[in-house]
Amino acid sequence: MENPLEQFAIHTLIPIHIGKYDVSFTNSSLFLTITFLLIVFLFFVGTSRKAVVPGRLQSSAELLYEFTANMVEDNAGHGSAKYVPFVMAIFLMVLFGNVLGLIPYGFTFTSHIIVTAAMALMIFVVVVLLSLKNHGIGFFKTFFPPGAPIFLAPLLIPIEVLSYVFRPISLSVRLFANMMAGHVMLKLFAGFTIALGLFGVLPLTFVVLLTGFEILVALLQAYVFALLTSIYLKDTLETH
Amino acid sequence: MDAASAKLIGAGLAVIGMGVVGIGLGLIFNAWLHALGRNPSAAPVLRQMGFLGFALTEALALFAFVLAILILLNVL
Questions:
Q1: Under a CB-based contact definition with an 8 Å cutoff, are residues A95 and A68 in contact?
Q2: Cβ–Cβ of B63/A177 closer than 8 Å?
Q3: pLDDT digits (tens, 9 = 90+) for A46-64
Q4: Going by C-beta distance under 8 Å and a sequence separation of 6 or more, which residues neighbour residue A32?
Q5: Does the N terminus or the C terminus of chain B have fewer Cβ atoms within 10 A?
Q6: CB-based contacts of B56: which residues, under 8 Å, 6+ apart?
Q7: A223 contacts in B (CB within 8 Å)?
Q8: Mean pLDDT of chain A
């Protein structure tokens, strides 16, 4: 059986070297570009003719926008409307990346931890800097839950600091592991189908079901990524 | 015991966490169904929180899975 991790290999399509750095155009960059072009196409074409009764493209653009705006409003609270573009960019990138990866012969760039870790670290840095800017020294109150007895501080503060620092790690590993595990599982069952010959119908049925489940996971993980981003952004607006 | 078999045993031990996550997911859906049965009109709120809890818990199983894969592929 082939190595199920082979599907995540990065191939160079157009070799580019700047100095000693390898900045080649790879299949990962290709799918990032496709994602970008699809999103830009959807929103430019969708909003080019602003009809009162929206067409298909305009409806999907409006639906995506309203969904994100409601999510940010519900979870980041009052005054969070200025974060909608940021969260929406992240949401759409993860969503399109996840779903594009499910197309046969596609490449899931979200299944590489470098991509998700870069996004999660960017979110973390933005949240910390904005919190410091908005609350000043009061930002450090985040690490002590209100109403807790003061003598618990030596115990609580390290735990809270740890859980705060763990945020980008869990955010990035969640997305990357979900995508990787799903694709590895699909590949394994596809391998069983060939190995079992006639009885391969059984794992084949399972592959069909799993593909449906993977579509759910792809949508859900994009949603969770954006939802957690907006929950983290809530800290920049209010301390507790 | 040689290093290769110790590695296999370690990978097996690492995925025990997935079973525990199974219990956790069962608890989440148990509570979700109970809440839905008691108050069906709360479905939209419950759906959001339920999916969030599902994703957060499922991630822990995947951490265990990734750890096992890393052990098996000699990365760690």
A1: no
A2: yes
A3: 888 877 888 888 899 999 9
A4: A97, A109
A5: N
A6: A174, A224
A7: 51
A8: 88
Number of domains in chain B: 1
Exposure string of A164-189, with b = 16+ CB inside 10 Å and e = fewer, is: beebbebbbbbbbbbbbbbbbbbbeb
* A220 contacts B51? CB cut-off 8 A: yes
Residue pointed to by tokens 């015991």: B1
> What pTM value is reported for the model?
0.86
Residue B66: both structure tokens together:
């990734």
Residues A145 and A45: their CA atoms lie apart, in Å, by 48
CB within 8 Å of A178: residues ≥ 6 apart = A217, A221, B58, B59, B62
Q: Name the token pair of B47.
A: 């759906």
CA gyration radius, chain B: 17
Tell me the pLDDT tens digit for each residue of A168-191.
988 998 899 889 888 888 888 888
Domain harbouring B26, CATH code: 1.20.20.10
Q: Cα A29 to the chain's mean position, in Å? A: 16
In Å, the largest CA–CA distance within chain A is 68
Residue where the block lists tokens 């709120």? B45
Chain A residue set in contact with B, beta carbons under 8 Å: 5, 170, 173-174, 177-178, 180-181, 184, 220-221, 223-224, 227
- At A188, give phi and psi (nearest 5°): -65, -45
Chosen for mutation from B45, B69, B71, B74 (greatest number of chain A CBs closer than 10 Å) is B69
Where do the structural domains in chain A lie, given as residue ranges?
A: 6-237
Q: Which pair of tokens denotes residue A61?
A: 């653009």
Q: Domain of B23?
A: 3-72
